[in-house]
Amino acid sequence: MAILGACTANRYPATVKENVKDTYFGVEVADPYRWLENDTSRATLAWVEAENKVTADYLAQIPFRDRIKQRMTELTDYEKIGSPFKKHGKYYFYKNDGLQNQSVLYVKDTPDGEARVMLDPNGLSADGTVALTEVSFSRDGKYLAYSIARSGSDWNEIYVMDIASGKLLEDHILWCKFGGASWKGAGFYYSAYDAPEAGKEYSGMNEGHKVYYHTIGQPQSADVLIYSNPGEPKRFYNVSVNEDETLLFLYESGAGAGNNIYLKDLRKPDTSFTQLTTDMEYSYYPSEVIGETVYMVTNYGAPKYRVMTFDANRPLLNDWKELVGESDAVLSDADMIGGKMVLTYEKDASHHAYVYSLAGNREFEVKLPTLGSVGFSGRKDDKEIFYTFTSFIFPPTIYKYDIDANRSELYMAPKVAFNPEDYTTEQVFYPGKDGTRIPMFLTYRKGLRKDGTNPVFLYGYGGFNISLNPGFSTTRLVFLENGGIYAQANLRGGGEYGEEWHRAGTKMSKQNVFDDFIAAAEYLIAESYTNKEKLAINGGSNGGLLVGAVTNQRPDLFKVAIPDVGVMDMLRYHKFTIGWNWASDYGTSEDSREMFEYLHAYSPLHNIGNDGTPYPAILINTADHDDRVVPAHSFKYAATLQAANTGNAPNLIRIESNAGHGAGKPISKIIEGYADTYAFMMYNLGMEVE
Known about the structure:
This protein is of the alpha+beta class and 690 residues long. 18% of the residues lie in helices and 33% in strands. Among the domains are: 6-74 and 418-463 and 511-684, 3-Layer(aba) Sandwich (Rossmann fold); 327-414. It has an eight-stranded mixed beta sheet, sandwiched between helices. Mean pLDDT is 95; it is low at 5-9.
């Protein structure tokens, strides 16, 4: 295979350096590309255009790039249906006919009846970049409040539809973030910020989260402020209302790994919120309210979570009682359905589901098809229950579940243009640098030979108590079809083994995450799955930080590195949008000299080699409307990388327009982006595409 010329990869745009420096505890740190933090300036926009041209020119020369895109399109073009959920005697579900940019909300009168379109977001924008993010039905069944996001931003707008006529009301709520509509009577609660400064909508720091109540038919300016905390502007405040609209729960987060919870009895309108907890290092989420009994899922006193209950009239933490205690597996979900509890546990990163009585007694296990992930749909009094199961080679499949008979029946299986019988998934356990036992899933075509020559796509995350469970992706199949191995490592910092596993990858222990990922690569080489010239790594957001850090620490170990929407500047991440919320995992450069030095020592931006040590081929992915991890992280990282002496491999950045952190991205952009990513990866791994 002819390799694209190094001169092409190195003909990068000239990026101006400025004499900008910060001082941390007496240590001066240069930040020459600070100007790229202004994402709306003419200079930055010109730089983005120039960088995208270099990247597009490089990708256009890859001979099989179009074949990859074509195959991804074929694989993605299948009917995708979500689990039905019942509201007011009707059944709602999301469906995508195949290549629709956004899924459509449908309604049926019966589970097997004829479907009608309820809400189609594809008509809300010409390019499919307006996404439907949340729906909420009023208790009387008259109204549907739905939230939309534009161009992948975290900013949401709420609209209200009259369900009977399908007509929109004049109600329109702006500048919402991190929470939809929670109905109570003739209106709903929502969370929002004050309107941001013009030009800084996607980069300015978000402060002062507030909870409002909106009455149908009134303008947003008339909405009633329900809760704010001016003394703690860098916290989130969200609310939820139970189905009977008797209790209002208020959640406070942003100052720890968990949240505080408050309660207000809506039957006593003159009362204020009662604070139930005082430590945001633990998580507290009500699963259901039945009568006066609140069922709470928490890791308070149980790092792997448990179910507790309390009487709404005696809600303080000291009066809570344990219903289902902590087990050796992590409790990841608790659904009250059909008069019982369905508890989903995570064992070695794979789901197992069990049915319990409301008294807390285990009755039986729900038999799932294989190792994978499951999600249940149903309400506390429903006898019609659905669940969706998926795994690496098991497309999302819906089952009807009879909870009394413990019997599953296939409801909908998608028809994807590949044969899952040709592939297999195995789970291995490898030792970390300190001997910790770490799980990893490997998926590949049956008959693969462990001769050390197979291309491997190694993916990781390792943060924020988030678990990487088995899941299906049509874009990944192209790599598997052409002889690749997909490896998914369950690193410390995630939630796979509870809060202790999470904390083992945070703050001054963050290096454990990088060591675990490096150990995964070394294991794959030692066990003859692959070699250094055939190994690509990828991760997004916190996983982008992971890829950037390990590339700096072990550039010799990988052939290709692809950091997506990564947190690359660990000294300034907390100064943009909601970056301050990540301090519970990372710490900040302002906390102490010790914390600054630790962050500075692994920050991807600040540790790029410049001594001629060859780096892998790098493709950085980001987006212009990413207001979660602002694109300045990737901009400054790319500019620094391109100016450094790291060998002749390409150092490219792909900047998506009208897109954000990933949620709500239209299918057309998803296919285009993955086609570019896999073309870059497979080309630089020396692969051929059939």
